[in-house]
Amino acid sequence: MNEEDDSPLSELASLKRKAPESIDKNTTDAINKRSGGLFFGKRIFADKVPIEWIALVVIVLGLVLFFVLYQSDTGSLVAPPDTLIKPRGL
After folding, report:
1. 85/43 Cα distance (integer angstroms)
2. Closest Cα partner for 69 from 57, 59, 79?
3. Quick check: 14 and 6 in contact, CB under 8 A?
């Protein structure tokens, strides 16, 4: 390589500086301000927890309810007809 080829590279090398310490915060603030919080806004619970975990909890609660009802005396939420209180006058 001759000196002419080194000239642009040496000029670019002289531009090399360390980034400011607060560049992350400044960039995040600028994106948040311009996007109206779309990217860095507050997230709801469903965004933080995977849908599979929520589905698993619902299935487990359904199974617990099923076994509680299955183990009850009547096997359901409705009492047997012979134990129901009949209204007077009928």
Report:
1. 51
2. 79
3. no
- How does pLDDT run across 14-66, given as a tens digit for each residue? 777 777 788 788 888 888 888 776 776 677 776 778 889 999 999 999 999 98
Separation CA 61–CA 59 (nearest Å): 5
Residues 30 and 23: their CA atoms lie apart, in Å, by 10
The reported pTM is 0.41
Residue 31's alpha-carbon distances to 23, 35, 36, 65, in angstroms, are: 12, 6, 8, 47
- Residues 26, 33 contacting (CB under 8 angstroms): no
